[in-house]
Design a protein that fits this description.
This protein is an alpha/beta fold. The protein has two domains: 202 residues, Rossmann fold; 91 residues, Rossmann fold, CATH 3.40.50. It contains 14 helices and ten strands. Strands 1-2-10-7-8-9 form a six-stranded mixed sheet, with helices on both faces. A four-stranded parallel sheet has the order 5-4-3-6, with helices on both faces. Helix 5 links the parallel strand 3 and strand 4.
Length: 316
């Protein structure tokens, strides 16, 4: 598969507009002071389903031909991607089957069902997940919606950075969290497509640092027993997202669990908005000593990837 181009991202923007919001950009003088530079935050926590994932799902699903779409779609997810596929499918008027591990939270299951998705249970392991999804495909003819490693998903996620840089072309750098890499690779494509000299950085938990290790060693290194509160960033990079990130992302900054929790609480308290731990990873990165050492950067955009948290299980 080839990486999407800026043209593909602009085409995706038309499809995303059918489903999602153009999310707001916010600032905080207090966070600017802590970071030592001016920060702007692209608030995907205000997006439909509470996360950026609706962008990729909408682009993929609304790009399907009517004949293919009629048979429905299937994916596997225990979180935001499943909700995004369920909602985008409902708005397209087709059926979505979401394969979920039996260990998934009841809150996430109810959210997917609330968007009209059919939840299909599977054992909590990769083999069972894949086999269950294939069973749905064999039975219904549904199309599989990849969570991140696909050009149409990446192009859809890229529209967040496209909007950000259309609003603020003076930005010198953009920072996005990285798990499977759909958001970060899309951010790099949109950012460099609009401004060739802009710098793009990833942010990753120390306990799930396959992207940082892959860039350091120059080869794709799968995630091995990730341990982090940022449950949206547990997935390994895919071959396509790795190839884009290795070419277009300057650095992946890793942060500790303590830094993630502190950044999350800081945003809740100072900016008065709810973000999830995965979004807090990007905030923690721009507040880190490693990033503060980049003194030539004065205007930096940060993508807050989502705001879905379990209010009964906060990390403080």
């Amino acid at each position: 598969m080839n990486a999407p181009t800026l043209t593909n991202v602009r085409q995706a923007e038309e499809r995303v507009r059918l489903v999602g919001h153009r999310t707001p950009v916010m600032t905080s003088a207090q966070l600017d002071e802590l970071a030592g530079r001016h920060l702007v935050f692209k608030c995907e926590n205000f997006q439909k389903i509470g996360a950026f994932k609706i962008r990729g799902a909408a682009n993929f699903i609304f790009k399907l031909s009517d004949e293919v779409a009629r048979r429905g779609v299937v994916t596997h997810s225990s979180g935001n991607h499943g909700q995004a596929v369920a909602l985008a499918s409902r708005l397209r008027g087709i059926q979505a089957h979401i394969v979920m591990p039996t260990t998934a939270s009841a809150v996430k299951r109810r959210a997917i069902e609330g968007y009209g998705g059919i939840v299909v249970d599977c054992a909590p392991n990769e083999a069972a997940r894949d086999a269950t999804a294939q069973g749905v495909i064999d039975e219904t003819g549904a199309t599989f919606v990849p969570p991140y490693d696909h050009p149409d998903i990446i192009a859809g996620q890229a529209t967040a950075a496209l909007e950000l840089l259309e609003d603020l072309p003076e930005l010198e750098a953009v920072v996005a969290p990285v798990g499977g890499g759909g958001l970060l690779s899309g951010t790099a494509i949109a950012s460099h497509g609009l401004h060739g000299t802009i710098r793009v950085f990833g942010a990753e938990p120390e306990g799930a640092d396959d992207a940082a290790r892959s860039l350091a060693e120059g080869r794709l290194i799968p995630q091995d027993d990730p341990q982090t509160i940022a449950d949206g960033l547990l997935t390994s990079l895919g071959p396509l997202t790795y190839s884009i990130i290795s070419e277009q992302v300057e650095r992946v900054v890793t942060v500790s669990e303590g830094e993630i929790v502190s950044a999350m609480r800081l945003v809740w308290e100072r900016m008065k908005i709810v973000i999830e731990p995965s979004a807090a990873v990007a905030v923690a990165a721009v507040l880190s000593e490693e990033f503060r050492a980049l003194e030539d950067l004065q205007h930096v955009g940060v993508i807050l990837s989502g705001g879905n948290v379990d209010l009964d299980d906060l990390p403080w």
